[in-house]
Design brief:
This protein is an alpha/beta fold. It is built from 14 helices and 20 strands. The chain has a 7-stranded mixed beta sheet with strand order 1-2-6-5-3-4-7, with helices on both faces. Strands 16-20-19-18-17 form a 5-stranded antiparallel beta sheet, with helices on one face. The model has no long low-confidence stretch (mean pLDDT about 95).
């Protein structure tokens, strides 16, 4: 069997190839031992393999003496909310996030309601290196308790935030594309609770075996949502990835803002109400620096990965942040990227400003970002990094996570993915021509290394 990917982004692999129910059961049993038994929240997204893994993970947790709180299908960010609200020992969401449908995985939440950091992940792996994980005897096994209120608790926590107490000026009509994933019902309920009218596009929990569009909610994947908004005459459309932690939107004319806009909109909204540091990862748009400068606050950058961002937020006392992939984090509400939080921010921002989304979008800083990837084919990162450093010798270099090369009006970030066997390339510049030139130049370096 091939090896799954096991990083701070969780355990992830292709079903039947490098992720099996046997492995999921063992890892869950190890996690149960790692968190000291107790109560563990368990949810999943809508992948066809989700039900199989749900039973395997449940078995592993019960064998370790845990009480499993069965949250059923729910967004990933629902799990840390429940862990925090009820002071649980931990949580697991069964999902492969934005990966294709043949993938699945496990995301692990610690008792502090955050995804495992580097130290905690190392501790879990030490437990799993034991040849045998001692199971509890029949009288000391855990149990399963169904919790059908997990999403209600999540929505209530958002609505109780001081950020969302203003009444809406009018009912916004919102198209919702949840990729037939875990946010399908939750997003509609969130919109209703905010006083808006949801119009469902891809919000079915019964479409197994695939997704109705590419799972990442990037601008080029939202053509159906754009058409839906225009044909229905809606005020905006919102899109999620399959587990509901990434969020992006289209305006009233069906024009996609791009996922980088989500964290800029959130930062501008929050900083207009409470000042404090902003934390984003190294791959997030430079536009966030411009937004923070409007409010006179600092931007701190972390390694890529939700756990790394959250750790840096705790360290700096950040009030808002996230990742440019559509991941919005407001730690006073949730220590996780949260698509429902992003939806609430957007609805409140449109209402408070009394401006359509297209106007809010025009007020954001504008840069051109391009993303690409290259298969690793087993090549060593030091060689790749060294070649890039030489090719861009005139740029400032940051090796916190892969290598980020900073120019006056551009940057290029190249790093090994946490979730796929690829090298990711992200370039941002003032023009598309310049961004494409940066990507082509970097790919030539990586391709030359492959030939060598």
């Amino acid at each position: 069997m091939a090896q799954p990917i096991f990083t701070i982004s969780g355990l992830r692999g292709i079903i039947g190839k490098d992720l099996t129910p046997e492995l999921a059961c063992r890892v869950a049993a190890g996690f149960g031992r790692f968190v000291g038994s107790g109560k563990v929240a368990l949810g999943r997204d809508c992948r066809s393999s989700g039900d199989m893994l749900f039973h395997a993970v449940t078995a592993g947790l019960v064998s370790a003496g845990c009480e499993v709180l069965d949250c059923g299908i729910c967004p990933t960010p629902t799990i840390p909310v429940l862990v925090q609200e009820e002071k649980l020992s931990g949580g697991i969401e069964i999902t492969a996030s934005h990966n294709p449908p043949e993938w699945n995985g496990l995301k692990f939440v610690s008792a502090d309601a955050a995804f495992l950091n580097d130290e905690q992940l190392a501790g879990l792996k030490r437990v799993l290196r034991q040849k045998q994980l001692a199971a509890r005897s029949w009288g000391r096994l855990g149990k399963v308790t169904v919790r059908d209120d997990a999403i209600d608790i999540h929505i209530r926590r958002i609505l109780h935030s001081d950020l969302f107490h203003n009444r809406l000026r009018r009912k916004l009509k919102i198209g919702i594309d949840a990729c037939n994933g875990a946010a399908s019902l939750a997003a509609q309920r969130m919109a209703q609770e905010l006083g808006s009218l949801p119009f469902a596009l891809f919000c079915s929990l019964h479409e197994h075996g695939g997704f109705p569009r590419r799972p990442e909610p990037t601008a080029d994947h939202l053509a159906d949502l754009a058409d839906f908004v225009r044909k229905k005459g809606l005020d905006l459309g919102v899109a999620f990835d399959p587990d509901g932690d990434r969020f992006s939107c289209v305006d009233e004319a069906g024009a996609p803002l791009g996922e980088e806009a989500s964290v800029m909109l959130a930062a501008d909204f929050v900083l207009g109400r409470v000042l404090g540091p902003v934390v984003v990862n190294l791959s997030t748009t430079r536009g966030i620096d411009d937004v923070a400068a409007r409010h006179g606050v600092q931007v701190v950058r972390s390694r890529v990965g939700e756990a790394a961002v959250v750790a840096k937020m705790k360290e700096t006392g950040a009030v808002v942040g996230g990742e440019g992939n559509g991941g919005v984090i407001i730690p006073a509400i949730n220590t996780s990227r949260d698509g429902l939080v992003a939806l609430a921010v957007l609805v409140q921002a449109i209402s408070d400003s009394n401006k359509p989304l297209s106007v809010l979008a025009r007020e954001l800083p504008h840069y051109l970002m391009l993303k690409d990837k290259v298969q690793t084919a087993g090549r060593a990162w030091p060689r790749l990094s060294g070649g890039l450093a030489r090719a861009f010798a005139g740029a400032a270099q940051d090796k916190t996570d892969g290598i980020k090369l900073n120019g006056k009006d551009w940057w290029l970030h190249v790093r090994m993915s946490n979730t796929e066997p690829i090298v990711r390339l992200i370039a941002e510049a003032r023009t598309e021509t310049e961004a494409r030139r940066l990507i082509r130049r970097a790919k030539r370096v990586l391709t030359a290394d492959k030939r060598g």
